[in-house]
Input
Amino acid sequence: MATKSAAKRPAPNASKPSRRRESMSSTLKCFEAFDLLAQEPYELPLAEIAARLQQPLTTAHRLLATLTEAGFAEQDPASRHYRLAGKALWAGAAYLRNSPVYRAAFLIMQEAARHCPGLIHLGALHGNWVLYLHTVGSPSRLYLYADTGERRTLHATGLGKAILAWQPADVVNRIVSQKLERFTKRTICSPTELREELRLTRQRGYAIDDEEGVMGLRCVAAPVFDRSGISVAALSISAPVNVMAPAALEGFATDIREAAMKVSVQIGYRPASSNMLSLMGAK
Amino acid sequence: MATKSAAKRPAPNASKPSRRRESMSSTLKCFEAFDLLAQEPYELPLAEIAARLQQPLTTAHRLLATLTEAGFAEQDPASRHYRLAGKALWAGAAYLRNSPVYRAAFLIMQEAARHCPGLIHLGALHGNWVLYLHTVGSPSRLYLYADTGERRTLHATGLGKAILAWQPADVVNRIVSQKLERFTKRTICSPTELREELRLTRQRGYAIDDEEGVMGLRCVAAPVFDRSGISVAALSISAPVNVMAPAALEGFATDIREAAMKVSVQIGYRPASSNMLSLMGAK
DNA sequence: CTCCAAGATTCCGCAATGCGGAACTCGCTT
DNA sequence: AAGCGAGTTCCGCATTGCGGAATCTTGGAG
Output
């Protein structure tokens, strides 16, 4: 039997301990193909896909056939190129429809938009990114296609800093120890400064993004807490610097914090149980 | 031995010819699980998932482990229930970002919203459904969560009828021969009537939805053509019946047809080749 | 029109990988 | 403590995915 079990662990070389995976490697490859289709070009020929996945043509073909049968990809009848199918959008929207934060925030954001200029964003923490869930506001959103579903860095957005400031230490450490990409001359790229910024954010109860992501755009953001008291999302108001003048910041901050608190309560946060927060200082 | 090769084609009984599938069955099961998570409840316990997929617990666990590793599902640390992860939204939005129709329509819709009341929708044909891609308009969209990514029937929406009216016969046949669900007393549920309605739609150049999907809501819709001259999407304006009075319909129709034509041109349609080609013996 | 090359698709024997019953672990309730 | 229910891990078996080679399709170039 020794030979038999030896076959089980085909790598005598120590590099790969050949752990029994609890997930299915063939399927994971299929999801890689899916990810690839979600990247830039609208559609890709099979050969290109095979090359990028570093898989033989035959395998790539099987993966795409599977994706197609599952409904998440489709093949252009003429060019034979593959692209994402509408079902991907449907599934993505399902995430939103089911998301408690989104559902709670929807009407509150609508309401807030009435007496706030600029754009109101809702973002949630997702891995090392803020994932944009929803936007309301003036229809001058010419500068963005489908911001919903997009992701940005945590350190260069108001939303990101608002979320990060109320995250457990290990998450903060993970983020801070990454390379902090620079977007404008104001972007905070030093770990130390970022930590200090988060401390300030906690102290004042909301985050400020002063042209750190895009020049000419200023933004205030407030965290949304779930029942366990950590931040899972944030709300922000952003507007051109002339609208969001320093003197006006405080007012916007109050509005957005109120809205964020309403959302928090709706998803189960109990403001009373605030042992860890002197944060909502105004209170 | 003989048994070995017999094992290859495990069905001596003729019922299953044991066709070699070109797609991977295990992966398809994984996508079934994905679909399931995209359904109603926010999260599901493993046992429930296994039951609904009609799979043994172990298998369900493997499927979910795979989905989780791929980043499309996540497990609540406390309840151990599974739910969709944000990556689903990201991938769905990628579909939009890459979609030529969406990109072409974005600014045109924004523009159209300036001088039109009500909501302007963009929908694309997807299987037997209209898939809603984008909406602009007055912020009184209280009645919908995330209409983007939702799908509705073709026969009971202006968008659907506008698309269907300029589809090849086989698609129309497929749709018409399905059961046509009733939503209001005005919904067109008879195949014959629907065909006649499509003929009228072609004749007048746009579709009208007169409280056929929702009572109190009227809508006009115009088709968007791709370079091959068939309809791939449609634009619509919908508003309460009092706003969209019979006398005003014509005006809205002109607006929406103009917008739809602009989109068509942007995605490669050549209005010059207006006569229903398909003849062109040259081929 | 004919031939050719590039790409996509299908074929098929081999063995790696997914399968699932059984055993195990971890919280909760009785 | 013991029992229960839900999730997780184990591991031998055989199904199913693998991928090189053969085949089919297309769209130019001659």
In short: Residues 7-8, 10, 21, 24-27, 45-47, 57-58, 61, 65, 80 of chain A lie near DNA strand C (CB under 10 Å from a C1').
